[in-house]
Design brief:
- The protein is α/β, with parallel strands linked by helices.
- Helix content is 26%, strand content 26%.
- It contains ten helices and 23 strands.
- Keywords: Carbohydrate metabolism, Hydrolase, Metal-binding.
């Protein structure tokens, strides 16, 4: 048994702030947040000295990082590199994301995810399969040649993979996946998210009633809110589903973000995602996806025709943007980066907070929101 304590001027447990307290860690779990006088004798005590200690960030949409793109490197080693490249930005748990591709590439990705889970790759909590069952009308940067309806083999492959990893998220469009298929996925524990869809509100509500509980990158690649047809945006805001948000100042205007936060009906909340690609954490100026060139410039990733293709964003940058530009209270922003995504995929019992029994995955932030140190399940991985 290994035991140590971490102290900082402020500790955020996922719900509330604490001062004059320490986080006691036993092996890979949080044992308690307590007064320094109550720390057991012989415990290694680490005083961080400044800033704040907060739950590790959770990113449910990460296509790549550290030079690795999941669509191109569908191996356990690639997943390990992708996950590790996120640590320096405060993300301690993530869903590597595969965008629309061929049947064979999707199969290989699911196999790699199952193997990564079995090998307990640090930071890996499952996969996000975004496509290929989308709407060509709202394809975004997805290759339309690979977009197709879900068939029985596709569904069974997802069901099999879900049994082998803590979480499995799939983004689908109601144009390509029916309510009965959504229901089967949801009943098996797959988190179903609507995205890349031109559906009206009626189609979205049918999908929510069938078991879909989320929308992917709110406002982007979906039918918009109108006065006579609320679209998927309106459906997401008016219903209690979860909604991912790319907070980079490019994908969604700051005024629109503020409106959405004020309008969002619970219990599902808006949470932060990066939608990052392979350039995260590197000086890469471009890469290829499905054989198409993507250029990194001016804080964005774009195809030759200007279409956004993922985001040039890290989780700590999204946190800072929401706090400084949108003006949201820091505690709520931190929940959007940790507790809310954990709840959205059903893993909030063990991640997304620093309650007793939770994974000891934490981030030491400076007062100006710089990442000073990162722990994943009790092991220091950065700083």
């Amino acid at each position: 048994m290994t035991m140590f304590s971490l102290s900082a001027p402020k500790i955020f447990d996922g719900q509330s702030w604490h001062e004059g307290r320490v986080v006691l860690v036993e092996d890979d779990r949080v044992k308690a947040i307590l007064h320094p006088a109550d720390v057991p004798d012989g415990t290694a005590e680490i005083d961080l000295g400044h800033g704040m200690l907060v739950p590790g960030f959770i990113d449910l949409q990460v296509n790549g990082a550290g030079g690795v793109l999941f669509n191109e490197d569908r191996s356990v080693g690639g997943l390990q590199e992708l996950c590790a490249a996120n640590f320096q930005f405060g993300t301690t748990a993530l869903l590597p994301t595969l965008v629309t591709d061929t049947r064979e590439v999707t199969r290989q990705a699911l196999d790699a995810g199952m193997a990564a889970s079995a090998q307990k790759v640090p930071g890996f909590i499952g996969l996000h399969i975004e496509g290929p069952h989308l709407s060509v009308a709202r394809k975004g940067a997805h290759n339309p040649d690979y977009v197709r309806p879900m068939d029985e083999a596709d569904l069974l492959a997802l069901l099999k993979a879900r049994q082998a990893m803590p979480a499995l998220l799939t983004t689908v469009a109601v144009e390509s996946v029916g309510p009965d298929q959504i229901a089967r996925l949801a009943q098996a524990g797959v988190t179903v998210s609507l995205g890349h869809s031109d559906t009206g509100i009626a189609g979205a509500v049918l999908a929510f009633e069938a078991g879909a509980t989320m929308v992917t990158h709110l406002f982007n690649a979906m039918s918009q809110l109108g006065n006579r047809e609320p679209g998927l945006v309106g459906a997401a805001l008016a219903n209690g589903v979860w909604a991912g948000l790319i907070a980079d100042g490019i994908h969604v205007d700051p005024a629109t973000i503020g409106i959405a936060l004020r309008a969002k009906r619970g219990p599902g909340k808006v949470f932060l995602v990066t939608d990052a690609m392979s350039p995260m954490g590197t000086d890469m100026t471009g890469f290829t996806l499905n054989g198409r060139d993507i250029v990194r410039a001016d804080g964005a990733l774009r195809l030759a025709d200007g279409t956004l293709a993922g985001a040039d964003l890290t989780m700590i940058d999204a946190v800072a943007y929401m706090h400084r530009t949108i003006g949201l209270d820091l505690a709520e922003v931190l929940r959007m980066a940790s507790l809310y995504p954990a709840r959205a995929i059903g893993l909030a019992e063990t991640i997304g907070h620093l309650g007793s029994g939770a994974a000891a995955s934490m981030v030491h932030l400076s007062d100006d929101l710089g990442v000073e140190g990162v722990w994943v399940e009790g092991d220091k991985v950065f700083g």
